[in-house]
Amino acid sequence: MKTVLVAFLLLLTGTVSQATEKPEFALNLYGGQMTGNHFEDFLLGKTVDAKESYLLAVTLARRIGGYRNLLSYEIEGQVVRHFNLQTHWEFNLLGVIRWELFWWDDWLDTSAAFGLGPSYATEKPPVEIANNGDTAQFLVYWMLELAVAPFAERPELELITRIHHRSDAFGLVAENGGSNALVVGLKYRF
């Protein structure tokens, strides 16, 4: 709660130093492993129930706006290929809000993002059926991302980690379904 209050006060007072404007586009390449976990399990530190199913994703994001160099707004398209237990394609289109400014950015440029949008799988994903009893090809997609730029000589390169999540949106778009993957990869800003 203290962090939220401090962030709100900084927004009101405008005393936050200005961050450097980042490039307009970002290309992400990431891979990961499907799990049997619910997304909150990762946040609570529960044991990961890894499945023998993997994904590889290529995404293109474009910055479409921002607020005081604290937040940026992006759109992102994703093409995802699943391997092993699943062999289908997945397509996601999402809106993203990214928190850009952290107090340690002078030492390690960091951002955190949340994205949400529609997801389409070219077939009902078998891991989702195994986890939930059934699923649908069309679900809602969201992601949580942490990005860091550890290479001072290459600030356009960032390491990323994400929760890659497909969801029935509490029954809004399907009766059952959803999956989670933990992924890591690279972001290239240009």
Structural account:
- By secondary structure, this protein is mainly beta.
- It has one domain (19-189): Beta Barrel (Porin), CATH 2.40.160.
- The chain has three helices and eight strands; from the N terminus they run αβαββββαβββ.
Descriptive labels:
190 residues; mainly beta; 8-stranded antiparallel barrel; 3 helices; globular
CATH architecture: Beta Barrel
Number of helices: 3
Distance between the termini: 35 Å
Mean pLDDT: 90
Largest sheet: 8 strands, antiparallel, barrel
Helical residue percent band: 10-25%
**What pattern of helices and strands is seen along the backbone?**
HEHEEEEHEEE
- Which word captures the global form? globular
Structural class: mainly beta
User: How would you write the strand order of the largest sheet?
Assistant: 1-2-3-4-5-6-7-8
The share of residues in extended strands comes to: over 45%
Q: Summed up, what is this model?
A:
The chain is built from three helices and eight strands. The protein is mainly β and 190 residues long. The protein has a single domain, classed as Porin (Beta Barrel).
Topology of this structure?
Elements (H helix, E strand, L loop, with lengths): L1 H12 L11 E11 L3 H5 L6 E18 L3 E14 L4 E11 L9 E13 L4 H7 L5 E12 L7 E11 L10 E12 L1
Antiparallel strand pairs: 1-2, 1-8, 2-3, 3-4, 4-5, 5-6, 6-7, 7-8
